[in-house]
Specification:
69 residues; mainly alpha; 4 helices; globular
């Protein structure tokens, strides 16, 4: 990724971590991944999974919410 993309991703990550305290992990991941997909910063839903080391059980739940499983 270029520097701008890294910064944007980290901003989304930070925002997601803050919201994670208020919302559940799955809902936060779904919201943030949806936003990243819509913005064009990522093209593959699995990118944030590998970057954030999301556990397999959470990955399947996120994919179900995104209707991408």
């Amino acid at each position: 990724m270029c520097t701008f993309s890294e910064g944007a991703f980290l901003a989304w990550l930070e925002r997601g971590l803050e919201q994670g305290l208020e919302k559940g992990k799955v809902e936060t991941l779904v919201d943030n991944i949806s936003s990243l997909l819509e913005s064009g910063l990522i093209s593959d839903v699995h990118q944030p999974f590998s970057i954030l080391h999301v556990k397999k059980d959470l990955q399947s739940k996120v994919l179900q919410h995104l209707q991408l499983h």
